[in-house]
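Reopening: Spermidine/putrescine import ATP-binding protein PotA still failing for me.
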Amino acid sequence: MVENIIELKNISKSYEENRVLDNFNLDIKKNEFLTLLGPSGCGKTTTLKIIAGFEYADEGSVLFEGKEISNKPPYERPLNTVFQKYALFPHMDVYENIAFGLKIKKTPKDQIDKKVREMLKLVALEGFEKRSIDSLSGGQQQRIAIARALVNEPKVLLLDEPLGALDLKLRQEMQTELKKIQQQLGITFVFVTHDQEEALTMSDTIIVMNKGKIQQMGSPEDIYNEPENAFVARFIGESNIFDGIMHDDFKVEFCDTHFDCVDKGFEKNESIDVIVRPEDIKMVESDKGMLKGIVESTVFKGVHYEITVNENGREWILHNTKNAEVGSMLGMDIYPEDIHIMKKVSD
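Support: Ran it again with your exact input. Result attached.
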């Protein structure tokens, strides 16, 4: 059984009148890559700072391996943090930056040498020991910041939007590298981002947050394929979301049409939200579709076309490798397993 390494229990935090976290509970397992995902102001960075000890909760407890650490300062917690601004020392070379924490601990020089070289190998920057920080690219600086954090062998590494300052290609490369490093070391990573692609690419577990509360917790596949409410569906990927009525188990009505679905357990004639992902809509001839509408626009996205269809005044977004002519009538088919039913909740 996988043990929890960090437990947040009934955490609340306010800044003046603004309640950032509201009775927040979260268990983080050993050796997992967990991502806190949500829009600006949702409380994800505050959560990370409370774990790190840079902020203290107004109420609640922080446990590390079952022991209370709520009032311990950052330097007494067995974890390290990497921020978006890497805070490397410009007057020190690469070796000195990585070795800094070990020197503070008065680690013997031979051990420092060994550990620094191990870290440089881990982040694929062997031979960079004497390079100045200013001579490094943004991606290289980020790797050095990670090496400096990991050289002290923390049990948990906290990362606060560390890829935000990188360009798209480098950011994508670093997503792969970070996941590889986490798997090699087998330690817990807690990653904060507002970027859905980052979260889906890297995480074992995603926590979707909004207004200081957890909206959904699960694997990337669960979060994307089975969103629990309209907020999650809108925030993770593109979605078509419509009001609907669950007439009975496996029977739903939306867009003035009755569909079979795979959901059950709702009240009879309960008002619900329906989500259909753009890639799950099948394009067919207009007279053969469950629904039909006029193609209003198409945009080439590289791997697919994004097609906007007006169906009786309702806007649908479709993703398909085939294009459709603007102004043409298009049929749309939706299979039961591609219709996702959600209870109505406020965002």
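The chain has two domains: 4-230, 238-343. If you still see a failure, please send the error message rather than a screenshot.
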